[in-house]
Design goal:
10 helices
């Protein structure tokens, strides 16, 4: 009896020690972030459009996001033991500096993502209404600096609320134009920025460095968003339920069009991802692998994915046999691709 009692106490002690170890490891951060799939979400409940009409078809539009959190030492142990994919199916681990650049913080990045989402919603509404030939008034005035990282060359020369209107003499009225102007620049080279600061226009020479997410690309160490004054003939209200970033821009654009009477889905379950620009261009986003798994889980039939950044190629890799990937470059091309789908029986 005494031997059995002692063995029982040993087992209980080991279980308690294991539980305590798991709790402690889960609270100790690791210098990586984990990207996890989230399910695709119907867009219609999130969008209110003045003068909305009943949709012409029975299809559904979805937007998709991902969960991103700092990984723990427990995640590190699971990865070392090769059980990570069992605990977190379809997860990707990223270096911390890719998600939260040096000199920034989780809170600063989250706030910037929410501002990006708000701007994306406004642009989506404008692009949708203009696509339907409504009298939208749009005045892009340059690339608005949302935040500047600490301890980078730009920190001494660029301020939040600055508006970048040219890079190396090339006009940068849109974010896409700034990205294009930086494409030929190599990390470490100097780029000359023309900046509108209040009522003044100044010129600053800024040394670039390697983009943490794409080391071959030059980066100036600022978070930016589109600067524009937009007047809509039809008011649009979008509630993204706290989701940040610009990646739902294409989905919101399509949903606004749907609610204004356009036949967008043609009866299909259509998921869409991609940032939308004022000119209707659809540009690259992150987390495509996880978003594709989320779209599959929702049972969508079609997934619109940007060509830019290799996004569509990544989605095709994980799409499976029942999900059609449509690579897109613009809102117009996306609409034509959807209209060309075979008629459902």
């Amino acid at each position: 009896m005494r031997a059995r009692f002692t063995a029982l106490r040993l087992i209980i002690g080991l279980v308690v020690a294991l539980v305590v170890t798991i709790v402690v490891l889960n609270r100790i951060p690791w210098n990586k972030y984990i990207v996890l799939p989230d399910g695709a979400h119907p867009v219609a409940p999130l969008v209110e459009v003045q003068g909305a009409r009943k949709p012409k078809d029975t299809g559904t539009l979805y937007f998709v996001d991902v969960f991103v959190r700092q990984a723990s030492q427990l995640d590190r142990l699971a990865r070392w033991l090769h059980v990570s994919q069992w605990l977190h199916p379809h997860a990707t681990y990223l270096p911390a500096k890719v998600v939260v650049p040096p000199g920034s913080s989780d809170n600063a990045v989250n706030q910037a993502n929410l501002r990006e989402m708000a701007t994306s919603q406004q642009i989506a509404a404008a692009v949708a209404e203009r696509q339907l030939h409504l009298p939208v008034v749009m005045h892009p005035f340059g690339v608005l600096v949302d935040n500047v990282y600490d301890n980078v060359p730009a920190a001494a020369k660029v301020d939040p609320a600055d508006v970048i209107v040219a890079a190396d003499g090339k006009p940068t009225i849109t974010v896409a134009a700034l990205q294009a102007a930086l494409t030929p620049v190599k990390p470490g080279q100097i780029v000359t920025l023309t900046i509108r600061r209040g009522s003044q226009t100044v010129t600053e020479r800024v040394k670039t460095f390697a983009d943490p997410a794409h080391p071959s690309r030059a980066f100036i160490g600022v978070l930016v968003e589109q600067g524009a004054k937009i007047t809509l003939p039809r008011k649009v209200k979008i509630d993204a339920n706290g989701v940040g970033g610009p990646s739902a821009g294409l989905a919101f654009t399509l949903q606004v069009m749907e609610q204004l009477g356009a036949n967008v889905t043609h009866g299909y379950k259509v998921a869409a991802t991609g940032a939308i620009s004022l000119d209707g261009a659809v540009t690259a986003i992150g987390g495509v692998e996880q978003k594709t798994w989320g779209v599959r889980a929702a049972g969508a039939q079609v997934f619109l994915v940007p060509v830019d950044g290799g996004n569509a190629k990544t989605a095709e890799k994980y799409a499976g046999p029942n999900l059609k990937i449509i690579p897109v470059t613009s809102i117009g091309q996306a609409l034509r691709a959807l209209a060309a789908l075979p008629k459902l029986k």
